[in-house]
TrEMBL record:
<dbReference type="InterPro" id="IPR008775">
    <property type="entry name" value="Phytyl_CoA_dOase-like"/>
</dbReference>
<dbReference type="GO" id="GO:0016706">
    <property type="term" value="F:2-oxoglutarate-dependent dioxygenase activity"/>
</dbReference>
<dbReference type="GO" id="GO:0005506">
    <property type="term" value="F:iron ion binding"/>
</dbReference>
<protein>
    <submittedName>
        <fullName>Phytanoyl-CoA dioxygenase (PhyH)</fullName>
    </submittedName>
</protein>
<dbReference type="Pfam" id="PF05721">
    <property type="entry name" value="PhyH"/>
</dbReference>
<keyword id="KW-0560">Oxidoreductase</keyword>
<keyword id="KW-0223">Dioxygenase</keyword>
Amino acid sequence: MKDLADYPYPLTDLFSQPQLALDWEKYRLSQEQIEFFNENGYVAGIQLLDENQIEVLKKALDEVMDPEHPLHGLFHEFHSNESADPNTVLFHSLGHWRIAEAFHDAIWNPAFRMVASQLLGNRAVRFWHDQLFCKPAHHGGVVAWHQDYSYWTRTIEMQHLTCWCGLDDATEENGCLQYVPRSHRWGLLEKPALAGEMDGLMAMLSEQQKAEFKPVSVPLKAGHAAFHHPLLVHGSFANYSDKSRKAFVLNVFADGTISNSDEPLLEGVPVISKGEKMGGKFFPLIFDPAELEN
């Protein structure tokens, strides 16, 4: 059995790789999409997966969710239910890219890599970590209002990006993403419990921020993604519908980000000393703009 973090390149043909600079063009965001991201802190509705890729990833998801999986020890975190409410379920994990070839190769999806580089200012991109967020039908739990970077201050500078991609259709009924537009301009807030009370963050907001707190729903078809700024306030409500809501998340940062901690940055990962550049097999370089010059 092998740790797929040892392979900094695609292992399957699930995602075709561009051979020429021109091949990347079809994955580029428009200038309007980039401007929307800069103004609002997110951009959504970007197709990353076709129907076959969705099915392959859903099969892999079902396999890695099994606590008895022989490579279970490679997870950085594994919560069969992280919900603070015992009557609801929120499956949440980190590290499945090390276990399943399909999720490993999703990191090298050119549609994802191109957009990530653009939104990070056309810079080289390194992988940070992955996540699974799954809400079963009828009793799926919430993800509380939060900012991603409030959990990531062990890395600096703040030059991170999150990509959320659905494997099921995400609707208001089954707990799709909710974004608070322009909240990425509020600065760094205190962090609430990620799967605790939905409104735990509200007590940490100023009166002006509360007045500007106007969430928008972001429904997405399966295989489509939303990208958001590390300070954008977001969350998702419970799933009481008869349809599941399965999704995976890819978190990245611009090359040159450094460690801000002398503790392990993720469970099971060797320490990168405070002040040292992030790199190595757990934080591979996944896109270099030089690839556009061939």
